[in-house]
Write a structure and sequence with these properties.
361 residues; 4-stranded mixed sheet; 53% helix; elongated
Length: 361
Amino acid sequence: MTLRIDISGLPSERLRFAASPLAELTAMLHVLAEPGHHPQFAGWAGEARAGLRPELAERLREAEFLWRSSQADFLLPARPRPTLAEELDDVDRIDDETYVTAALVTTCGGNRVRLAAPSPLTDATARERALDLAQARGARQEAFAERLLADPAAVRARVRHTLEQCAEAFFDAAWTGAAVRLATDLRLKNDLLRRQGIGAALASVSGAVTLAPDGDCIIVDKLQDKATAAHGTGVTFIPSVFGSPHLVAVHAPGWQPVVQYPVAEPSPSEPVSLETVTLRLEALAHPVRLRLLRTLARGPHTTGELAHTWELSLPEVSRHLAVLRRAGLLTARRHGRYVRHTLNLPHLTALGTDLLAAVLR
């Protein structure tokens, strides 16, 4: 499963790396709404929540659907500005239909809609559908959707004011430190882009982001099958300190592709692809292979030993061992006449973490 961004014919200067105050504030708000995704920021989140005035805390709960399970597309600017105020001004320039549609995707939990889909601001059927979806997600979502559809201007002004209050409450202080790390990352990325080209720059973003062999497509390893194009607009990559471990992408029709990626840690681990995680889960789904692993967990064994232990035929054991080897869960080494199979304990131990990383990515 991947997100594919078509960049055929795109000049290299249309691939941009830039920091965004609004995108980083959105990442911080996600940390506050979903602290379980970000245990490394538990201390910061606790202090930030403790310092919130009751009115602001309530405002954040009221609008958290814009950044909790997924981020509204208008919170990830395609053309980042130096200041939060400038980026909020750009959001204010978005028309009501575009803003409302993006907000309802996160509020109602629906998929990104097609450009031809009727607007819930003008179409009664679309409006009822949006309210039904919001109601299914909870009373807060329903109330927010109702207010948004009834008076978009008032809700937009309230959301902006909430974000401005966040700047004073916690963002400005956190941004001071984060901006230094972002600037360091951007110097590296832009230098690679200038000296070695798009492929090298993408490789430095994440092991989950690659350039297709023909150079016409950026491939993002995500738990989805989506495609978008950057023709005439370009692609923007936004580094994030607080966004780790998420790899967030704007891909809806009508929006310029944007990818928000976590800045590299001092000793980053290479992400395991979703394909590899799926292969390992499928390998473990068979009861016979689980029995073989139970024996191999005690130490290396030959195919004959495993067949004898579990009263299986040699060909049957060989087939199951081949599946486990392809998944990277076993290694095989020859010792004289014998080939001994050994459990790859690090890969098996990390499977839960790798699965979670693939899902959150």
